[in-house]
Prior knowledge:
Blueprint lengths: L4 H14 L5 H13 L5 H14 L3 H8 L10 E5 L9 H9 L3 E5 L7 H12 L7 E3 L8 E5 L2 H10 L5 E4 L3 E6 L5 H12 L9 E7 L4 H7 L10 H16 L5 E2 L4 E4 L9 E7 L2 H10 L4 E5 L8 E2 L18 H6 L3
Parallel strand pairs: 1-2, 1-4, 2-3, 4-5, 6-7, 6-11, 7-10, 9-10, 11-12
Antiparallel strand pairs: 8-9
Amino acid sequence: xxxxxxxxxxxxxxxxxxxxxxxxxxxxxxxxxxxxxxxxxxxxxxxxxxxxxxxxxxxxxxxxxxxxxxxxxxxxxxxxxxxxxxxxxxxxxxxxxxxxxxxxxxxxxxxxxxxxxxxxxxxxxxxxxxxxxxxxxxxxxxxxxxxxxxxxxxxxxxxxxxxxxxxxxxxxxxxxxxxxxxxxxxxxxxxxxxxxxxxxxxxxxxxxxxxxxxxxxxxxxxxxxxxxxxxxxxxxxxxxxxxxxxxxxxxxxxxxxxxxxxxxxxxxxxxxxxxxxxxxxxxxxxxxxxxxxxxxxxxxxxxxxxxxxxxxxxxxxxxxxxxxxxxxxxxxxxxxxx
Length: 338
């Protein structure tokens, strides 16, 4: 049975209203997820679940999201290959597939095997007629189109392997921030969230700072003091210690507060537990530098929009429902299939 759009929206709203991450079953699945993947701390899982509940599963947001599209009449099967760098990062693709009226054939990441299936089970328990829209598989077969997310290397493999299908393939991305010196105290604190949320593992985490003028390391480190407990996480500390040793042995210039290493570097991609910065003389120079690597940037955190994919401070990892990965309209792709 095919549910009409309003019923699909109502099912998702019902799900959002019923999520209770303090319930015993939610606690159990989060503990199971953490046991398998140490990066998935309970705090990080809660952060993502609460973000999904607030940003994706409210009736006003869902209606605003779909209102600009004309839904296709054909119900197709969409293969979804999900990433696993941060908890439930592939949920937006599932949500969009369901809203567009297609079936989602889902291959979860080995790093994130429990949370999304659990959430979909909750949806089906609330609205049993949604069950036919979701299938979890180990291998994708008999699908009509594909959405896949992976590294640059796996993206090349996906492009070749799925060449005969309509497809949306995503690659490595990162976020950058621009500091002009006019940022408020609170905005500097919020930058810490953009850097450290999910340990910096997300494609929307800031890994590079463009500075208008001199990088004020003292002001920067003053405002990220609240994130110092991260160094107590074993895997994060191992990455910090490794980077520290490598930079020291190679006599690379860097600063540190014993939690985050900041080093001058033109690359926008930095290692876990480190961040790059680059000093420039004008906003125009910064914009030109960003444009050169636009294909590698997910969002730019800054006071004023300097790039079409812009985030306010503290919002890099809190995208709205109509903020698309890689700037490619997922819903347009899905509604255009049939």
